[in-house]
Amino acid sequence: MRITLLLLLISISATAQTSSLAVINDPDGFTNIRRSPGAQAPVAAIVLKDQPFYVEPSQCEWWKVNAVMWNMASLAGFEGFIHKSRVQFVRELPDSVQQGFFKRQLRAIRQQCKLADALREKSFDRQTNALDKTLFDSATHTRMRAYDATYESLVEDVRIYLCRTKDVLILKEWLQAEIDTEKSASEIPSIALGECYICQPEWLLEQLRSFPKARRIHFYDDIAHGLTFADDLPSAKLSKLEQQLTQERKRP
Questions:
Q1: Rg of the Cα trace of the chain?
Q2: What's the number of domains the chain is made of?
Q3: Which pLDDT tens digit goes with each residue over 215-252?
Q4: Which residues make Cβ contacts (< 8 Å) with residue 134, sequence separation at least 6?
Q5: How far apart are the C-alpha atoms of 36 and 9, rounded to whole Å?
Q6: What per-residue string of b and e applies to 55-82 under the rule 16 or more CB within 10 Å gives b?
Q7: Judging by beta carbons within 10 Å of its beta carbon (0-12, 13-18, 19+), is residue 2 exposed, middle or buried?
Q8: CB contact set of 219 (below 8 Å; sequence gap of 6+)
Q9: pLDDT band at 185 (very low <50, low <70, confident <90, very high)
Q10: SS3 for 210?
Q11: The last residue of a domain, from among 129, 155, 182
């Protein structure tokens, strides 16, 4: 299962370049994803309200769904279709609606990662040095669904929202998710934080000052790493941002 999920996460990262993060637009609170285009096609999955997914817009009435967050195991190798009338792009939602959506998603991610930590701790009997593989696998799957899949698929849209709105509430929720969860090997969150720094450097640094020094250093390291991916940034601007970050590190 772990290998299958890892392959799916790689697939999500690739399809994110051509697809858009969306939620359903359905008064019933759920929408069927079909195995092929058409209302009579077999149902491949059900997407609920607030459940994000990647969709690939096209000229057709039925759009391809590449991945559905929070439901990764059953959708490994999945490809489905949803009618375009049932799709609402996250980036096109009103700011107040986006704020609520991001807040709920980030808090749910943190709760699930804490659950994963509890399951992993419970899976190991310290007296006998025995490992309950079922609990351990459940912990691994829970974390991968919540963090490696949903969280890392969400942060780019969070970054775009923050660059436009400078919403302190959502920034703090995002940073708390970074603190409360163990980071995966993926570089996606660092890249997003680096891009947020590029678009709103003074604002972001000001908000980071509310954290203890050790936490700030953690975020500065993420930003610096994210900046290494800013290939299209003029060298003069990149140098200025790096110098500004270096000066910020010296603050008490």
A1: 20
A2: 3
A3: 999 999 999 999 999 989 999 999 999 999 999 999 98
A4: 123
A5: 23
A6: beeeeeebbbbbbbbbbbeebeebebbb
A7: exposed
A8: 175, 178, 193, 208, 211
A9: low
A10: coil
A11: 182
